[in-house]
Amino acid sequence: MDESGGSGRWHESVIDLIGDTPMVRLRRVAEGLAPAVVAKLEYFNPGGSSKDRIALRMILAAEEAGLLRPGGTVVEPTSGNTGVGLALVAQQRGYRCLFTCPDKVSTDKIAVLRAYGAEVRVCPASVPVDHPDSYRSTAARLAAEIPGAFSPNQYANAANPESHYRTTGPEIWSRSRGGVTHFVAGVGTGGTISGTGRYLKEVSGGRVRVIGADPDGSVYSGGTGRPYVVEGVGQPSLPGSYDPAVPDRIIKVSDADSIAMTRRLAREEGILTGGSGGMAVAAALEAARDAGPDDVVVVLVPDSGRGYLSKIFDDAWTERFGFADQSGEGARVSDLLDRQNPRRELVFVGPHESVTAAVKLMRERNLTHLLVASAPPPVRLPEIQGVLTPAALARSLARGAVGPDDQVADHMEPPPPPAGTGRLAADVLATLADAGATAAVAVAGGLPEGLVTEADVLALLG
Ligand code: PMP
Prior knowledge:
- This protein is of the alpha/beta class.
- 34% of the residues lie in helices and 17% in strands.
- 4'-deoxy-4'-aminopyridoxal-5'-phosphate is lined by residues 80-81, 186-193, 232-233, 274, 276, 302-303.
């Protein structure tokens, strides 16, 4: 895996291109801050992310331990950057690669893995993770059934943080000529922060401050695993690949701040990264506020934004989820909310509550829409599973289709469509018509803010 013949003119394999990624100072987004804020751009890795590093180390470590032999198969439940890294390294070292993923994963992501020659089994996303058909159970079964199979499991593999201890940490130390004072990275498996952070602390005699960035809702920043939009970071529970002794501080970043910074990085710094890169930079800027002019804040940008063009970089998407205002003149969804008097409250029931109790609640509170949520308030958008309306319930009752023991989930309609608070009110009518709905959930920064009905819109426009 050395450069060809020592000539330095080319490499023998793309594997040799893993690591030694460049660092670039952030000028515009860090304007006015005392320290230098420097981004380490991991999309310069051949597979496009920091996960190439861990893929290489996990496969080499498995070879060394005799877990992976010629003709072996790498099996992993993954569809993202780790899959790309593993596909790349496995094919170069002569292994078959077999991935499983839930069927909600975009076809583009699956196509990337297949393009590298990996096999992908698509499993139902609708079953719980411990169900035998889930993508995780399927991977475990395949790993047990296929002779010579090896499952890297990045969440429990010491080679994950180890790869960053051996490469990312030393690269930052040498490129900054020992000047780095703060290291900031998003925390997913925790491999990056634990390995890089441990190296930088050791080499600096404990001087480097290590700061993790975490999406609001995830466990690292005190959440309970409620959903958020930014991909690849955060966890519902602490994995073995994370060493809680390493970070000095965890900064919680909202989806709204992560997405705004991701878009600014593309427009102002020429850095096209995903939401977790924006999240890490947002945290780095916050950490930089407490730092001095001689400090150097290094922030890791883990992947490219190319995989997120249809979401974070798509105006229709950001407007729908309340991350940006729609252009144009006129009353907005936020105006509809402001005119509600009293403000329409978001009222929720669980999917397993009885229909009888739900009907009583709707009567008592005079609700036009009772939302069905899988978790207690404050409810996040993906947790809204459906809605009960008096009209639909009355139809079911009239048909005699409601039994005394029926659950809410048996009679709910699909969840109301989201409408960002910065959207034009007039356009909400089209959204409602498309969804066949009578209300939309008003969303600000990805979070449910209220409920706007067809009647609200008509009252404002009329
Ligand atoms: N950003 C993205 C896009 C990722 O895929 C990951 C890894 N899951 C991370 C950040 C976080 O890195 P780590 O797993 O090392 O904590």
